[in-house]
Amino acid sequence: MPRAAGSAAKRQKLAPADLDLHSLHSSLQDGSPLPKIQVQLLLNASQACSELYDKQCKGRKDNANCLHGLVPQPGSNRRKGLWQKEPEALQHLGADPSEKNRQEGSQPVGLNNLGATCYANSALQSLFMNSAFRNGIYAAEEPSTSQDSILSHIRILFAQLQAGPFTSVDPTPFVKALNLNHAVQQDCQEFMKLLLSTLEQRLQPSAVPAVRNLVPDLFRGQLSYTTTCQVCHRQSEGSARRSHFYELDVQVQSMESLEHSLGTLLGVERMEGQNQYECGFCCRKVDAERQMQLRSLPPYLCISLQRFVFDLKKMTKVKANDKISFPLELDMQPQLDAGDAAGRHQYELQAILIHRGSNASSGHYVSHIKDEAGAWWRFDDETVTPMEDGPVGETADHGTPSSTSAHKGRKGAGKGAADAGNPVEVLNSDGEATPAQESPPAAAVQTNRITSANAYLLIYRQASWQPGPTPVVPDSLQPQLEAERTSHAEACNQYTAAHHDITSRVESRQQHTRQVVEAAPLSPDAEDDRLVSGSWLQQWADNALEPPSLTHEAISCPHGQLDPSKKLECKRISPVAWDMLAAQHGNPPALTSDQLCRECLEQQLESATEGRRGDELRVQMLETAIGLLDGSSSPAADFLISKSWLLGWRKRAGRSLSVASPTEALICPHDNLLPEAAGARARRVAIPARLWQYFRQLWLQQQAEQGEQKQAKAAQQCAPEAKPAEADATPAGAADGVGEAHGNGIPSVAGNAGSTPPGITAREQEGADDVIMLDHEGSLHATPAANEHATDESSSAADSHAQPSGNTDVEHARTVELREITCDSAEECAACLVEFSSHAEAGQELRQHLESEKTAMSQLAAGTVLQLEPGAQYNLVPRTWLQQWRAFLGTAGKRATPLSPGSAAEAPAPGPLMQAIANSCCQCHHSCEQPRLNHRPPAVTKRRGRWILADPGQETFEAISSADWLKLLHFHAADLPEGSSHPCREIKAVLQVCSAPTLPAPKMYDLAAGTLPDENVIGDDLQAVQKAAGGRASIADSAELLTDPLVCLEAVREREEHVKKCKLAYVDEEVLVELVNESQLGDALTGERKSKRARKGRTPVTVSGSSTISDLKMHILEALSVHPRNARIFKPIRHPSKPLDWFPLDQDDRTLAEYEVYAGEELKVVDTEQFDADDLGSLFGSPGSSSRHETGFMGTALMGIQPEIAL
To answer: Where are the compositionally biased (Low complexity) regions (predicted)?
Structure first.
């Protein structure tokens, strides 16, 4: 009989249990056709399947008739492949151009943001929505691009915004004409001013007066600076001189309203003292008043709110986040010079340019603009949305605390978070934090005013101003707009055609696939069938691209016929479905169930027959083993094996073997039988010869297979480019020290092919030597007398029952034994018996000694809490020594024998007591006659009227009574190492109580001299304290232990500093952060232990001691959604006799270790809400942005540089 090819885990089961192997074997022998029903059983095709779209069936691989899951139910989709909702090919087409179609109606369109051009988009939209300005631009003479590219491109841009085909216009040509760097954020107000100045210059050559004076007529006003002498009351000669202005710059810091800021701008300035005025009429310096007066106002009044100011401390430009209110209707009469601009002082708000963000060099610009019909729109680059409630209802852009959007979705923003209406802090001109004004409640918000912390530029229009007719795109610009419309329509048509083509092809493919699959199901009794690969069929039904080629490689054997072992890969389909598939793939030859390979089937039948015989034999051997272990049977006792090994084999139902041999645990270090007195490891079971022969053959077969695998692995490592020969599969469980038997029973033995399974005849290989040598490379070598099946094999390491080699120095070789131990000749090792007997006697003496020591100091051994009495003498012992001593006493009587190491949990004996006492002294006083301790004595506390150690588990020393100390000396006094002359032989301590009332200085007792306080004296002192305390029960506030030797404070400080540094050198540990109101810091943490429910609001963050406060704030941003610039962090400071205090961690560059923030500490976070929570751009600025010199618009066409021609 040939050797089994691999393990049972690799070999497939041939067929279900009801398969008639005898009938199949007979048909193969006489050459007759195979029975149809047996073929169906072989191919898993005997079971019918439910309906194709049955929801209960998810598709079964063990049923060749099941086709569920090939296609989804009608109307359903899948995540990917042919049946996904949107075909994958459509994604390559890109975005649908029709999505950019301009909406019908009067809704404005947006401008594309080219990177950081939101400032330009906001300014351009405000100018475009000004119909008078747009009419003036359209009315300008048609300039050539080579002559004036700026004017040409702004006319085209306005025409595209008004009548273009897109919902958002690309401003790239205009930006290139200005030479703007689209990657750098600029000042919107400065851009507006420079753009108007540039356009004014370029419109000057126009012959049309309305075009030539467009900018001055719309935006220019007049003012004068008057200086009045307080002596002669005359104005200076320059007071009559008028100047032009295009905008008014007003302050926002410390200004409640726009009217207040305008009044400050136009207010009277007194020139006194060293700043006196030289009057031309009085001919001397006199007191005077200076004032800026508005002489005339333009139709469109631009008011610039000075949001960006220079910080002298930071030497950079910062944003002022002060909130200022401004009206929808502005009356400029109080600010005008009397008699000027009569009737033209009423203004209506036309546009608001807004800067969102906390950083002056970053952020985002949006604009709120009113059209000529009175409707308000919000312009945010490409997005334009109507403002249903007008500018007053849009609070999110203004950064007002009345908006709840800033708190929506914030982690931890609950009861402890700052309320939306609470005052926040802003930066003043010096960069210092000052409280901002509290916002009014929602019910008090006015409908005719806006309060904003982000408004940057306001544009008011005179109420009596008539902007003129509705702008009409000039005829000269119509051809370019028509070309854009035509190009866009063509792109839409091309996309629609491509989309329709792809959709049609996918739908046609889906329809054909569903048609084939619905025609494919067959019943089990169908005579005519076709077989295809199930994996190919699934790939064909799912592939959205071209289907794969139709082949039978996955289910064919080397003989070109149907492979019986590939039954899980086979699917039966109808001839109709096959013809439809074959026509699509070049009509390959069909494969039916009648083409089952008879040669492959015969080989698998032989393997299955052998496996069944092995199963039957395994069941017999397992029943025998169970009877031996349970005592229900008593067959002939011929051989001895390890009981633990047999129990493991039974637990695995006989399907696998331990790597250790059945007798390996029974061999002692002297290579003899281990005595049963050695413990559980030496327990053995007597088994019959038949069972021994079965185990022996299985174990040797396992060793042979593992050797083959190691050789194949070594060959693969030596020659990775060469394909290694196919080795047998690793037995199941080999990684766990367990191998699996072949065929679920006994396989053929290597080198002994054709032999009958072992265990049938008794001791077939009685003369063979069963010792196998394992060298240091892991290769097995048989001794000269070993049989051939143990040659050149390898073995895994033995399991926990394996006996280690006696010589640990010799690592190059050890013995893995399969020793044959017969019951007749089995004799226990005499040397082991002698060792065990001597060890038992020594162990008995040790147990008696430990028991007497444990009895003498029962309370000390049990760790009973010691009650301390004032004035009584005690001794201090190192706590680590006492812990080792108690653990050693606890294992008394449980010592392990040398023959069974590890059978009991052993605690090591404590070190010398005197040495532990000596080690408790500092090194700086080591050689002195009066040594000192390197640790403080343990702290004491009073609980329920008794003085005890406060925290004995954390202290270096433990206090014991003098009686227990004398007993310890009795057992451990002689253990000081020879040659040691340390002067410290004991540590004495006396409890001194410090009473609450004012008393004379306490008496100090000389412990070194042996003078102790008398109990009567102590009692008199206590009575005096009681009397002074007014008879109260609590007569003492604190107490301490006075020691002899004294404590070395220098050593203690050095050690505590070292411990402190070690604790602060933590890496990737958690600290707890909690978001609270600043008013809650007083009662946020009272020092007492809180339950888990009370700590629910605290969130852990992972930091290190080297992390800076800035790093911690970034973690807080992730955990609590608090802006790093709004986060104020506090650390609790606990004082023994003072209430809890909070220390601010306000220096971002300092580390947690510098602030002494330990791992696990609880920190409180207060959100100032000074900065917008969504504005994070300032945290991730470009490298060197803080130190980079601000160049503004230098090098652009706005500064007079000739622009490049934008093509």
So the answer is: 712-737
The alpha carbon of 337 is separated from its chain's Cα centroid by a whole number of angstroms, namely 66
Alpha-carbon span 139 to 155, nearest angstrom: 10
C-beta neighbour count of 831 within 10 angstroms:
12
Rounded (10°) CA dihedral 1079, 1080, 1086, 1089: -170
Q: How far apart are CA 872 and CA 863, in angstroms?
A: 20
User: What is the separation, in whole angstroms, between the first and last Cα of the chain?
Assistant: 88
Distance CA 396, CA 393 (A): 9
* Cis, bond preceding 757 (omega within 30 deg of 0): no
pLDDT tens-digit map of 999-1032: 343 343 333 344 434 434 434 444 443 444 444 3
Residues 68, 364, 488, 552: which is the catalytic one?
364
Query: In the sheet where 988-995 sits, what is the strand order?
Result: 957-961, 873-878, 988-995, 1036-1044
**Averaged pLDDT for residues 257-268:** 91
- How far CA 350 is from CA of 131, 369, 464, 1157, in Å, comes to 12, 6, 13, 54
DSSP one-letter code for 336: B
Handedness of CA 179, 184, 190, 192 (dihedral sign): positive
In terms of Cα–Cα distance, which of 224, 255, 229 is closest to 242? Answer: 224
In which element (H, E) is residue 156 found?
helix 149-163
The residues, any chain, with a CB within 8 Å of residue 892's CB and separated by 6 or more, are 846, 847, 850, 851, 854
Distance CA 519, CA 616 (A): 45
Burial class, 906, CB count within 10 angstroms (exposed 0-12 / middle 13-18 / buried 19+): middle
**If DSSP codes are grouped into helix, strand and coil, which group holds residue 620?**
helix
- 3-state DSSP assignment of residue 340: coil
Whether this prediction's pTM lies above 0.70 is answered by: no
12-20 own/partner pairs: CB under 8 Å, 24+ apart: 12/565, 12/567, 12/568, 12/604, 13/608, 14/42, 14/564, 14/604, 14/605, 14/607, 14/608, 15/41, 15/42, 15/608, 16/41
**Which residues is 455 bridged to in the sheet?**
354
- The least confident of 227-231, 445-449, 779-783, 998-1002 is 779-783
598-630 and 689-718 are packed helices; what angle lies between their axes, rounded to 10 degrees?
130
Tokens of 588: 């390959």
Whether residue 849 lies in the annotated active site = no
* Catalytic residue chosen out of the listed positions 49, 66, 118, 188: 118
Counting Cβ atoms within 10 Å, is residue 501 exposed (0-12), middle (13-18) or buried (19+)?
Answer: exposed
Contact 136, 151 (CB under 8 A): no
Strands (E) across 497-652 are located at 530-533, 570-573, 639-642
In this predicted structure, what is the pLDDT of residue 68?
A: 86
- Pick the closest to residue 628 from 643, 610, 608, 609 (CA basis): 643
Give per-residue pLDDT as tens, 335-389: 886 555 555 789 999 999 999 988 887 889 999 999 988 999 999 999 999 999 8
Q: What CA dihedral angle connects 620, 622, 623 and 626, to 10 degrees?
A: 160
DSSP letter for each residue of 55-76? TT----TT-TT--TTSSPPTT-
Q: Tell which residue, 688, 685, 693, has the closest CA to residue 648.
A: 685
d(CA 408, CA 417) in angstroms, rounded, equals 12
The Cα–Cα gap between 474 and 882 comes to 101
Lowest mean pLDDT among 94-103, 167-176, 422-431, 1126-1135: 422-431
**Nearest-angstrom CA–CA distance, 952 and 866:** 10
Distance (Å, rounded) from C-alpha 793 to C-alpha 787? Answer: 12
Active site residue 718: no
Task: Please state, in angstroms and rounded to a whole number, the distance separating the CA atoms of residues 870 and 1205.
Answer: 99
Cα 546 to Cα 78, 478, 537, 540: the distances in Å are 18, 48, 14, 9
Give residue 450's Cα distance to chain centre.
43
